[in-house]
Amino acid sequence: MNSRAMPIRQTTLCLPVRGNPPSHVLLGLKKTGFGQGKMTGIGGKVEPGETIVDAALRELEEEVGLRAREWDVEPMGQLTFLFPFETSFSQLVHVFVVRSWEGEPQEGREVVPTWFAVDRVPMERMWHDGTFWFPPIMAGARIRARFTFEEDNETLATVSIEPWDPEGQLD
To answer: Distance between CA atoms of 158 and 24, rounded to whole angstroms?
Structure first.
């Protein structure tokens, strides 16, 4: 058995919002792949050679057709998801709020985009961890959180959340 840990997969999650403070947020119903059937933000994997911000912008355009620029995305969180019983699911998610973009959300191969009032987001259709990180981020808090899942890969075993300063951490 190889005792060296594999590096955790880096992913992005964009939350396009209307209003300041946000009154509405764009979420996507996952049609395929990891998290199929759940509501989530818009994002995906960071590709080799890509910066985290570039990956966020690319995924936003690929998944729902919105074109944003680097200065349109605001880093709001780093969420570590640990799945000890299915380590390939483990990932570090870089969360961005997107306040400006070009285009209208379009259904793509992976997600069906839908606007929700921030106070009416269907939390019961999201991963269980959403109740911990989504409200503070929508309220403007920058956070770092760590979630460890039970053997069923759905139930949370542990949760920790702390304030986060993104300065210099998105290269």
So the answer is: 29
Position 6 scores a pLDDT of 61
Instruction: Answer yes or no: is pLDDT of 48 > 60.
Output: yes
Judge whether residue 166 has pLDDT over 90: no
pTM (predicted TM-score): 0.93
3-class state of residue 138 by DSSP: helix
Query: For the residues of 35-95, what is the DSSP string, one character each?
Result: TTT-EE-EEEEPPTT--HHHHHHHHHHHHH--B--GGGEEEEEEEEEE-TTSGGG-EEEEE
Give the chain's radius of gyration (CA, Å).
15
CB 27 within 8 A of CB 114: yes
- b or e along 64-102 (b: 16 or more beta carbons within 10 Å of the residue's beta carbon)? bbbebeeebbebbbbbebbbeeeeeebbbbbbbbbbebe
